């Protein structure tokens, strides 16, 4: 099997330097969705190696450095989607066309800035707690399950824009392989972390998908990115409080 789908997934979801063959095969773009969970595992593994290297530092210092690296490695991609979605949801006033238009505006309003700060603060506090508990598995699951939700979203939800990488992903997604992949991830999640993390992630996924359907009749790249951030935060919180 070609490595191109994995390289495409790494190039799209991270700033890790990889070389993708040009021209890109649209089939490989669709197949890259199968490797989103792998990208989550790679990211979380890097963060845990850094956590191990910082084990002589205070929990707060370790958490802030790990969170900073987390943001940098992902290129702020999902945070950007969260900011755009927050502005669009508030400014769109329930109107689909207006919501989609605001999402294309590169400027961030006060609600976007406030939400980004809130999400990063929550992640920082949860990381402090999880590092203190040596609950590294929860960090792996937060990052991996959130990215696993992307192929599930594209499998079950129409993509409302006709152009861009999202449209290519949906048009070329290997649907049967995606279903098997998601079933395997769900099984592994239950085996290694129990039902609670998976159920909390699924509940939030369904709520977010419902909101997207109600407002947009589907999803966009921005709302998909926002979903990743919200799911990561949800899983971290759940892991701390259970």
From TrEMBL:
Q: Which GO terms describe its cellular component?
A: plasma membrane
The UniProt entry lists the main location of this chain as membrane
User: What is the organism of origin for this protein?
Assistant: marine sediment metagenome
Identify the NCBIfam families for this entry.
Answer: cobS, PRK00235.1-5
Keyword Transferase recorded: yes
* Pathway it works in: Cofactor biosynthesis; adenosylcobalamin biosynthesis; adenosylcobalamin from cob(II)yrinate a,c-diamide: step 7/7
User: Hey, which family's this protein in?
Assistant: Belongs to the CobS family.
Question: Which GO terms of type biological process are on file?
Answer: cobalamin biosynthetic process
Q: Where are the transmembrane segments?
A: 33-54, 59-79, 111-131, 138-160, 180-208
Query: Where in or outside the cell is it found?
Result: Cell membrane
Q: Name one GO molecular function term.
A: adenosylcobinamide-GDP ribazoletransferase activity
Carries keyword Cell wall biogenesis/degradation?
no
Its name, as the record gives it, is Adenosylcobinamide-GDP ribazoletransferase
EC assignment: 2.7.8.26
Which cofactors are reported in the record for this sequence? Mg(2+)
Record's catalysed reaction(s): alpha-ribazole + adenosylcob(III)inamide-GDP = adenosylcob(III)alamin + GMP + H(+); alpha-ribazole 5'-phosphate + adenosylcob(III)inamide-GDP = adenosylcob(III)alamin 5'-phosphate + GMP + H(+)
- What general EC class does the enzyme of this chain belong to? transferase
Which keywords appear in this protein's UniProt record, sorted alphabetically?
A: Cell membrane, Cobalamin biosynthesis, Magnesium, Membrane, Transferase, Transmembrane, Transmembrane helix
Function description: Joins adenosylcobinamide-GDP and alpha-ribazole to generate adenosylcobalamin (Ado-cobalamin). Also synthesizes adenosylcobalamin 5'-phosphate from adenosylcobinamide-GDP and alpha-ribazole 5'-phosphate.
Pfam families, A to Z: CobS
Q: HAMAP family, per this entry?
A: CobS
Q: Its topology with respect to the membrane?
A: Multi-pass membrane protein
PANTHER family reported for this sequence? ADENOSYLCOBINAMIDE-GDP RIBAZOLETRANSFERASE (PTHR34148:SF1)
């Amino acid at each position: 099997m070609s490595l191109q789908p994995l390289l495409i997934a790494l190039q799209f979801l991270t700033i890790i330097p990889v070389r993708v063959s040009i021209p890109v095969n649209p089939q490989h773009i669709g197949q890259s969705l199968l490797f989103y969970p792998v990208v989550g595992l790679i990211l979380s593994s890097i963060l845990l190696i850094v956590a191990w290297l910082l084990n002589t530092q205070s929990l707060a210092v370790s958490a802030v450095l790990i969170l900073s690296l987390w943001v940098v490695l992902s290129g702020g991609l999902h945070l950007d989607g969260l900011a755009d979605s927050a502005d669009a949801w508030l400014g769109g006033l329930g109107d689909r066309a207006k919501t989609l238009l605001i999402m294309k505006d590169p400027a961030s309003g006060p609600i976007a800035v406030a939400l980004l700060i809130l999400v990063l603060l929550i992640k920082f506090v949860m990381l402090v707690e999880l590092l203190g508990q040596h609950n590294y598995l929860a960090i792996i699951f937060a990052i991996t399950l959130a990215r696993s939700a992307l192929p599930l979203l594209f499998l079950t939800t129409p993509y409302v824009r006709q152009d861009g990488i999202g449209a290519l992903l949906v048009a070329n997604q290997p649907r049967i392989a995606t279903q098997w992949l998601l079933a395997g991830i769900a099984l592994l999640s239950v085996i290694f972390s129990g039902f609670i993390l998976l159920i909390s992630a699924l509940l939030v996924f369904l709520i977010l998908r419902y909101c997207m359907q109600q407002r947009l009749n589907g999803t966009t790249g921005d709302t998909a990115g926002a979903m990743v951030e919200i799911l990561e935060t949800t899983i971290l919180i759940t892991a701390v409080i259970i």
